[in-house]
Amino acid sequence: MGHLMPKESYSNISDISLDYLINDIHIKGLIFDFDGTLIRNKIVSVDTLNFLKRAKERGLKLSILSNNPYVSKTILKTINISTTKKFACKPLKKPFLDMAEKMGLSPNEIAVIGNNRISDIWGANRAGMYSIYIQNLNSYMFKKKVEDKLKDLGIKHIK
């Protein structure tokens, strides 16, 4: 069960402290999940774009590891991340380790940022990488979980 637990958890990518990652954890590269992490509802937020820009300015290497075979080339151009692996077969360790090799970094120098505890967090932890979970509080699945928990408690509506 410990492999599904991230080292950190946030609502948005922009809440992540680059200073902490770089200075305290000694991270030199970031691997992002695509759908639901970098893009939400087919849109890259301004906050996410600014975070990516700051990460690049700080010298971090950036890449994408996605199980989606249809990663949008237009969005890739917008976010300006060229190192990409589509249909990665996450949570297998191999795609994470292959990406580390492509980036020229060891696994302990990489943080993986994703919104799925199994494919992103479990995969990152198994590969020896620092895992950061992005909980999409507006997602249908999150809202459904909350509604189900409230029903279990006997609460039917929240105003």
Task: Provide structural commentary.
- With 159 residues, the chain is of the alpha/beta class.
- It contains 6 helices and 6 strands.
- The protein has a 6-stranded parallel beta sheet, sandwiched between helices.
- 33% of the residues are buried.
- Strand 2 (29-32), helix 2 (46-57) and strand 3 (61-65) form a beta-alpha-beta unit.
- The protein is globular, with a radius of gyration of 16 Å.
List its salient traits:
159 residues, alpha/beta, 6 strands
Helix content: 25-40%
Mean pLDDT: 87
Strand content: 15-25%
Along the chain, the helix and strand elements come as EHEHEHEHEHEH
- Main β-sheet, spatial strand arrangement: 1-6-5-2-3-4
What class, by secondary structure content?
A: alpha/beta
How far the N terminus sits from the C terminus, by CA atoms, comes to 35 Å
Identify the overall geometry. globular
Rounded radius of gyration (Å): 16 Å
Number of strands: 6
Helical region count?
Answer: 6
Largest sheet: 6 strands, parallel
Oligomer status: single chain
Low-pLDDT segments: none
